[in-house]
Amino acid sequence: MSAPEETGRGAATEQPPGAPGHRVSRFWLLTGSSAASELGTTFLHLAMPVTILAGTGSSVLAALSLGVQYLPFVLSPALGSLIDGFERRRVFLVSELAQGVLVALIPLLLMAERVELVFAMLLLTSCANVVSNLTSDFGLLPTLVPPDRVTWAYSKFAATTEAARCLGPALAGLVLATLGTNWALWIDAATFLLTALVALALPKRPQPPVERGFLRMQVEGFRSFRRLPGIPRLTLSLSMHNLGAGAVPIVMVLLVQGTWGWSSKWTGLVIAAGAAGSAAGAWVADRVWVDRTPEQRIGRWFVLCAASCALLLLPWQPVVIAAFICLMAAEGGMNVTTNEFRFRAIPDEVAGRTNAVMRAFILGALALSSFLLGWSVALPEQVYRFAPALLASALAAVLWTGVRRSAGSASAAGVSGPT
């Protein structure tokens, strides 16, 4: 979730004060192209399971077509070293081009019925996606706005891309029904090529001075991760939350369509409402609790997540849906706030490696969550179905609140805590 600025937010204006016009336009150029790319990715996520299930009749292979797209996040530390070893804009450009080419090849492999090669393309595409996300989120985006407006940038970027994810499934279904799988995938490929063109308009940044040895870079990434104040505890808290609540959107599909017996149309609307909630949470992240420290704001998002998970245990369907939307909104706001925290806390020369280590733990926990909630959602009583989500989310809130209290105690004793 997948981070601090307490003053000067100026939420009433959309342009960061003091920022040159071309600088702001580049921010919106990157944001718009990234949203288009996210919209295209929903085409891939919907088209692949449907197509593989229709072609092979295997639900296992259909599920693996999605699972394989999350596997490369475990390799984030190694891929983060690649980011820190080269100029960021170039890495972003190459990763977007690679995704476009690889996705464009998938329809040809489907025509040849080479499912094993399709999985290989998906795996390689996901590796490039990890590199692209790490580079844009933590390397490029914060440099396109003034330092005092990083929260504003993360908020607008997250809300815009979440809105694209909300719109994507409906458009993907329409394209699949009218044009077919091949055109859906080629449209996705085109969005990556569009983002690659946008990368050419972004300013070059000086390459950070880093050691070139691969093993040395890995070791330094883990050392930086352990040394930076607040980063290990933030990773632990986010991983704990994801362990229980990370797979809630997936489980909601099983609950709404399988247990409740609702149609696919209504199931899609429920998931879309959750995505809209996430976008709303990201959009208001720089407007709420502006007088609080970053640590306090993160803690409040954790508490809201835990409260939403508690409501998921109730037996009434409207309440469960409302709780799901609230949980997605809280996670959207948390993503913005924690991303900013990470940008402030992690030095630029090790940003790629350190964020990659964090992402490996956080998204690895999300993968485990699918197994945990996949088991609990089949239980007969609603109170048990989301119990793992509540327990893990509440523990995450306790873990993070301990950071704030420790910092407050250190300050009271005349010792400077992490800021």
Describe the structure.
There is one protein chain. The protein has two domains: 19-207, MFS general substrate transporter like domains (Growth Hormone, Chain: A, Up-down Bundle), CATH 1.20.1250; 223-409, MFS general substrate transporter like domains (Growth Hormone, Chain: A, Up-down Bundle), CATH 1.20.1250. Helices cover 76% and strands 0% of the residues. It contains 16 helices and no strands. It has helices spanning 21-56, 59-67, 76-85, 88-111, 115-140, 150-178, 181-201, 214-227, 231-245, 248-259, 264-284, 294-311, 317-345, 351-376, 382-385, 387-412. Helix 10 (248-259) packs parallel to helix 14. The chain is globular and about 50 Å long. Mean pLDDT is 76; it is low at 1-20 and 407-419.
Comma- or semicolon-separated keywords:
419 residues, mainly alpha, Growth Hormone, Chain: A, 2 domains, 16 helices, 76% helix, globular, disordered N terminus, disordered C terminus, transmembrane, MFS_trans_sf, MFS transporter, cell membrane, transmembrane helix
Task: Summarize this structure briefly.
The chain is an all-alpha fold.
Number of strands: 0
Reading off the top of the CATH hierarchy, the class of the largest domain is best stated as: Mainly Alpha
CATH homologous superfamily caption of the largest domain: MFS general substrate transporter like domains
Given the C-alpha coordinates, what overall shape results? globular
Number of domains: 2
**Portion of residues within helices:** over 70%
